[in-house]
Amino acid sequence: MAMMTLQDGGKMAYVDRGCGRPLLFLHGWGTGSAFFHKQLQYLESDFRVIAPDFRGHGASSPLPEDGDIHTLARDLGAFLDHLDLQDVIVCGWSMGSMVLWDFLATVGCDRISQYVVVDMTPKISNDKGWGLGLLYPARRYSDIRGGEEGRSNWDRTCESFLSKLAPKGSDPVVAEWELKEARRCDPASMFRLWNSLVSEDYREEVSSLGIPALLIYGEQSQLYGPETSAWLDAHLPQSSKIAFKRSGHAPHLDEAERFNSEIVAFANREGLAKAPCDASFGHAS
Predict the structure, then answer these.
(1) How far apart are CA 222 and CA 234, in angstroms?
(2) Alpha carbon distance 144, 210 (integer Å)
(3) Which of 115, 192, 269, 270 is 20 to 30 A from 66 (CA-CA)?
């Protein structure tokens, strides 16, 4: 993996393979770039495939003590500048979509021409006016801490949240690999990020984005129901949605061959036009 040094001294690891139009993969909370290995291997012959480890994940350094989802969005901006990427297709899985939405809301979309949302909601926490967030209590992992106690707690937490990624009865060998990768994350960073994620609301921002979007969701997702993607499809100015019948929260792992084909088809789709973006409203941090 390559390594980028951020302005505050933090380190951001990333994979950069192939050549051609950039296809950037943004992973979810508690996972890492390795969760896109089936995409990187298949698509590098036609695209420049890039996948960073967000800070706190994989081979990257931990988040700073005041770090949150907005920190990751700023890191994404620095990353795009560092590689000087243009005409990028971004695929955001779970938290990766929130990082992208935050970036687009605060910076704009000059470098990004298309994006993919994989099984994600613009607002994780449910309330009286919103019921399309997590299908279980959003505060479930808010007790993660740093230090030795935090590491033990995180190891147990990994088993709990990874059990929600795939359809029930998934391959135990795959589950063991996912657990090993998730345990590489920094517990204190996970605590900060989770509490940041459950407090965010990007409903207004996504409704203002003129970038062509593809919504992919798993019909067996244990995290979000199909109504969540339907809401996004109805509120995004340019979008289409695809259901993966045999997939849970991670269609790119559960049905990788079809997922990759849909990404290629979306990248090559004709008649897509990006409307001007307005990032002037920003996002509260």
Answers:
(1) 22
(2) 37
(3) 115
Say if strands 88-93 and 112-118 run parallel, antiparallel, or are unpaired: parallel
Q: Which residues of the chain have pLDDT under 70?
A: 140, 142-151, 168-170, 270-285
- Where would I find the H helices in the chain? 37-43, 69-83, 95-106, 147-162, 172-182, 187-197, 203-207, 226-235, 251-254, 256-267
Q: Please state, in angstroms and rounded to a whole number, the distance separating the CA atoms of residues 220 and 245.
A: 7
Q: Which amino acid is at 188?
A: A
**Domains (range + CATH), the chain:** 2-267 (3.40.50.1820)
Q: What is the pLDDT of residues 191-203, one digit of tens each?
A: 899 999 999 999 9
Supply the mean pLDDT for the chain: 90
Q: Which residues contact 265 (CB under 8 A, 6 or more apart)?
A: none
Q: CA of 262: how far to CAs of 5, 197, 265, in Å?
A: 34, 28, 5
How far from 255 is each of 120, 129, 214, 251, 258, CA to CA, in Å? 17, 34, 16, 5, 6
What's the Cα-to-Cα distance from 164 to each of 202, 224, 236, rounded to whole Å? Answer: 23, 10, 27
Q: What's the pLDDT at 154?
A: 86
Note the pLDDT of residue 69. Answer: 97
**Lookup result for tokens 């798993």:** 218
**Under 8 Å CB-to-CB from 89, ≥6 apart: which residues?**
21, 22, 23, 24, 47, 112, 113, 114, 115, 116, 263, 266, 267
User: What is the 8-class DSSP label of residue 33?
Assistant: G
pLDDT digits (tens, 9 = 90+) for 32-62: 999 999 999 999 999 999 999 999 999 999 9
pTM attached to this predicted model: 0.93
Assigned token pair, 191: 């605590």
Alpha-carbon gap, residue 57 to 65, rounded angstroms: 15
